[in-house]
DNA sequence: GATTGTTCTTTAAGGCAATAATATACAATC
DNA sequence: GATTGTATATTATTGCCTTAAAGAACAATC
């Protein structure tokens, strides 16, 4: 009924190489994470290592970036960032990525609004969203990895009730309120000064202006990264892993939440405060602070 | 180098329908969980509902059970359990299931012992374990769902360091020691008398003798079920989900642990004690008890 | 009236060949 | 000496087709 008919095309040949633009997006995202500026060199091997790829696909991504005007390249000198990755101009390349995400978002929306039955066959999804079997499988694998759909033993898949339930958000927060402070309170917890500095720099930048220019999705993403980086300090992958999963589900309803810029501002300030305490290794205190940070009901979802 | 060559066959036609025997195994496992006895009827639709399947595959499973001598069927009267599902005789049908699990176990062992590089291509795995692409994909999907392998952005997969690390077990326990007591202490925690009764009955049975007859794997499985049923009481799927994931990884190294029957006995006694406290709704006390239960170093892994 | 038996429809898995994407090795350039 | 350019080998995806598996509907039986 609500299915998007999503350009019935052979999945390749669609506006100048979908894959390349996707790669371009990955590169820009990395550049942003690393705090790179316009003019910085984009060294192939370094990008390849950071993204767990070989140079071949990186190269495609770089070419796409050049086409999009986000990078400039000269023969035998490689590529250089043409714009600050945080600037609004980073959108063009991302536009392609967005298109790729469209079906995902549509499905997420349909599941959240219960427009889709809990149990569905692949055939039905293919028809409904105009996907090839291969495309659908990729998508379902990804969603399964995020934990909100699972294969049934026979034919078909089942969406987790978790997602569509109205209390889902509260439950996710309750879970975080348990694991995040506990992680900080773990015996071996430690956060290198490097990491702290990087996190602070990023939060500071957001605090001092970028916030206004960011989309809800970006703010959300940035918050997740912050918290995931901190929980990583426990040195226990189970904490990190479980936070990641919660976050990937929270992301689904984050889009619905209102943009309360003031609340977000206060939120980021708390992040900065937390970093101060972590820096001086007062972990017990930091754990408490984190607990408070998470318990605050807050609008409808960020952190 | 250590690859098992695993009967290079077309994946179907292998000793009287592999799939049917697998289904038979599912049915027996269900019968055990539900505490069924020899003589109980196996009603197709009921089994189908419980296993999220239709009657067609159930029927195959039942026929296989009959062949294996675990069920008896008469025309128009359906099937009846021939043996107690807890008896050792339940093994024959499971033998087929085990065969199916063999490659999985081999891979798990190779990863645990670091005989496999962290990054591998599918082609390499296919060669090494003598699998078709389809078989391998199924396997990798399952392992990915369990969380100890993940697709790389390019070609290949990466096994989680989590698994092979020597501290993995301690980390898993540390994580459990956080979430399980916290789950019990959640505001809405509740466990119906029904559930408590069922759990008690099961633990009691194990305590009073079955323990001696169970394999390590079965003891482990039973322990997981117990804990998962309890954490479910928090009514927060994130707790349950994360415990499940930890457990599916713990299972990997559980096989290596020694069978300390005395330790296990004490362990089950603690489960029974915990149920008593839960029954009277003294949740704070129960949470503490659970924390102690999990903190005890214990041999090498059960609970 | 519930359950099993049977038939028919739909769904997905498996294998194969063609093609695209990625990795790798080495030469060329700065 | 590090990085880019290029050629080659390896790896995995895609689409197509065949076949197996599962679901659904209805009749038959207890």
TrEMBL record, chains A, B:
Domain annotation HTH gntR-type: ranges: 23-81, 103-159
Claim: Ion transport is one of the keywords in the record: no
Keywords per UniProt: DNA-binding, Transcription, Transcription regulation
InterPro entries from the UniProt entry: GntR_C, TF_FadR/GntR_C, Tscrpt_reg_HTH_GntR, WH-like_DNA-bd_sf, WH_DNA-bd_sf
Keyword DNA-binding: yes
Signal peptide region: none
GO function terms (MF aspect): DNA binding; DNA-binding transcription factor activity
Listed Pfam families: FCD (PF07729)
All residue ranges annotated as the GntR C-terminal domain in the record: 171-296
Listed name of the protein: GntR family transcriptional regulator
Biological source species: Bradyrhizobium hipponense
């Amino acid at each position: 009924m609500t299915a998007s008919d999503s350009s019935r095309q052979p999945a390749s040949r669609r506006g100048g190489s979908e894959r390349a633009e996707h790669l371009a997006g990955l590169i820009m995202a990395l550049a942003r994470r690393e705090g790179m500026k316009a003019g910085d060199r984009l060294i192939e091997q370094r990008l390849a290592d950071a993204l767990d790829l070989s140079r071949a696909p990186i190269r495609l991504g770089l070419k796409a970036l050049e086409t999009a005007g986000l990078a400039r390249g000269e023969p035998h000198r490689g590529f250089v960032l043409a714009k600050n990755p945080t600037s609004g101009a980073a959108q063009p390349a991302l536009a392609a990525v967005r298109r790729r995400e469209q079906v995902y978002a549509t499905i997420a929306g349909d599941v959240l609004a219960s427009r889709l039955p809990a149990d569905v066959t692949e055939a039905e999804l293919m028809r409904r969203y105009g996907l090839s079997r291969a495309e659908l499988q990729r998508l379902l694998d990804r969603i399964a990895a995020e934990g909100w759909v699972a294969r049934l033993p026979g034919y078909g898949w089942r969406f987790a009730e978790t997602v569509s339930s109205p209390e889902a958000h509260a439950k996710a927060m309750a879970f975080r309120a348990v694991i995040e402070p506990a992680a900080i309170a773990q015996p071996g917890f430690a956060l290198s000064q490097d990491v702290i500095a990087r996190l602070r720099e990023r939060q500071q930048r957001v605090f001092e202006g970028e916030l206004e220019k960011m989309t809800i999705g970006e703010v959300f993403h940035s918050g997740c990264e912050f918290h995931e980086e901190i929980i990583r300090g426990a040195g226990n992958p189970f904490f990190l892993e479980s936070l990641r999963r919660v976050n990937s589900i929270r992301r689904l309803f984050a889009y619905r939440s209102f943009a309360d810029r003031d609340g977000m501002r206060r939120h980021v300030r708390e992040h900065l405060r937390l970093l101060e305490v972590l820096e001086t290794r007062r972990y017990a205190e930091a754990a408490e602070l984190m607990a408070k940070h998470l318990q605050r009901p807050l609008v409808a979802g960020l952190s």
